[in-house]
Design goal:
The structure is a single chain. Helix 4 (about 85-95) links the parallel strand 4 and strand 5. Helix content is about 40%, strand content about 20%. It has 2 domains: about 5-125, Response regulator (Rossmann fold, 3-Layer(aba) Sandwich); about 135-230, Orthogonal Bundle (Arc Repressor Mutant, subunit A), CATH 1.10.10.10. The longest helix has 18 residues, at about 105-125. It has 8 helices and 11 strands.
């Protein structure tokens, strides 16, 4: 069984060491970086399965590191940051993070979130149809095993959570999923009132699908109910 490798990028060496300690106990291999450029370099040199990134780092901040990672890779990214406002959390998700934790943090909660991200990645990497592509109207083709999305012959770079949401909706065309159902299915956690995580991801997913310029919406909002894929 392949050992999971986690990148820990934080300019506070004590925090990086603490995170590494708990991840190693969980059986994961860790690579540490104390600045943003070192984090980007680590991703180019090693096969990283998941990244835990601080936002305020020297050389390159966590947002820029995420953008550079997303250009070529689709690993889950968790922001671990002292920036704790709702605006900061939403900004982190919009930038491409799959989860966001604030400092100070409970290391065991971070371990649980890492495990959840990896579990969802493994689950959605499998296909109930034996790995066969999910083909939708509007030129959308989803390859579950490769976690690739093609629209009109062109690849579309999605974050793991964006992919999981699209795969879930497109696998059940015209079925309406509530935000609560999507969150529980994709994040594997309990939903709470006021949680706008799904809405933020749907918004960025629509932009990547070209819906800001396309009158024929692939993902439709059923007001007061949820979302459905029509293609």
């Amino acid at each position: 069984m392949k050992t999971v490798t986690i990148l820990i990028a934080d300019d506070d060496a004590e925090i990086a060491d603490l995170v590494e300690l708990h991840m190693v106990k969980e059986g994961y291999r860790c690579i540490k970086a104390l600045d943003g450029q070192s984090a980007v370099d680590a991703v180019s040199k090693h096969r990283i399965d998941l990244a835990i990134l601080d936002i305020m780092m020297p050389k390159l901040d966590g947002y820029e590191v995420t953008r550079r990672i997303r250009d070529k890779h689709h690993m889950p990214i968790i922001f671990l940051s002292a920036k704790s406002s709702d605006f900061d959390k939403i900004s982190g998700l919009v930038q491409g993070a799959d989860d966001y934790m604030t400092k100070p943090f409970n290391p065991m909660e971070l371990v649980a979130r890492v495990n959840a991200q990896l579990r969802r990645l493994l689950q959605f990497g499998r296909s109930d149809a034996g790995g066969k592509p999910v083909v939708g109207a509007g030129g959308v083709v989803i390859h579950p095993d490769e976690r690739r999305v093609i629209i009109d012959g062109q690849p579309v770079a999605l974050t793991p959570k964006e992919f999981d949401i699209l795969h879930l909706l497109a696998s059940h065309p015209k079925k309406v999923f509530s935000s609560e159902h999507i969150f529980r299915q994709v994040w594997g956690e309990e939903y709470f009132d006021g949680n706008n995580t799904v809405m933020v991801h749907i918004r960025t997913l629509r932009k990547k699908l070209g819906e800001d310029t396309n009158k024929n919406k692939l993902i439709k909002t059923i007001w007061g109910v949820g979302y459905s894929f029509h293609g």
